[in-house]
Amino acid sequence: MRQLKNICVYCGSSPGSREAYAGKARALAETLVNRGIGLVYGGASIGLMGMIADHVLRLGGRAVGVIPEALMHKEVAHYRLTELHVTHSMHERKMRMAELADGFIALPGGLGTLEELFEIWTWAQLGFHGKPCGLLNAEGYYDPLIEFLDHAVTEQFVRPSHRSMLIVESEPEKLLDRFADYRVPAVKIWVEKDET
């Protein structure tokens, strides 16, 4: 069984249109705290980002934010976190979050959430890390994306083994159980890390 000390959560700096998204963020926060798992996230105090961090802290858990200098004021940095790391660039932010986390979960979010998820999943596909990546599919938010990804497999642009690296569940407990049992699939890697 895989040991999960910290989970990186990607999610919106907006609360979204449904209260259920906030409810799922709080449910994930409770599951993390109950399992002694720390939160690593983008460091903002607003939207789903702020909600999950606030709930983790309210429950006595650890919340670590990582935010680039350029977004300190735009995203309204959260100053009551267990730790707040300020980076020089977005790239440095994503690298730091990846270093701190033992797995990656995307809650509902917009372009930034999708970009972060796809980058970390691509790193897994390329063999740069062996950590689990998942979607917490609140209220079916990611159903159209999941359908598209399955279409990409059918059209042979995504290999089934790579598609299987993205774990999808609608409940935090089930998702984290699957993270704990995650084994990196045996996949052919197109390029070795030292060749990039």
From TrEMBL:
Reaction(s) catalysed by this chain's protein: AMP + H2O = D-ribose 5-phosphate + adenine
Task: Return the InterPro entries for the record.
Answer: LOG (IPR005269), LOG_fam (IPR031100)
Alphabetically ordered keywords of this record: Cytokinin biosynthesis, Hydrolase
Record Gene3D superfamilies = 3.40.50.450
User: What is the designated name of this protein?
Assistant: Cytokinin riboside 5'-monophosphate phosphoribohydrolase
Source organism, top-level taxon: Bacteria
- The answer to whether keyword Metal-binding applies is no
What taxonomic lineage is listed for the species of origin? Bacteria, Pseudomonadati, Pseudomonadota, Gammaproteobacteria, Methylococcales
Report the enzyme's class at the first EC level: hydrolase
Q: Would the keyword Calcium be found if you checked this record's keyword annotation?
A: no
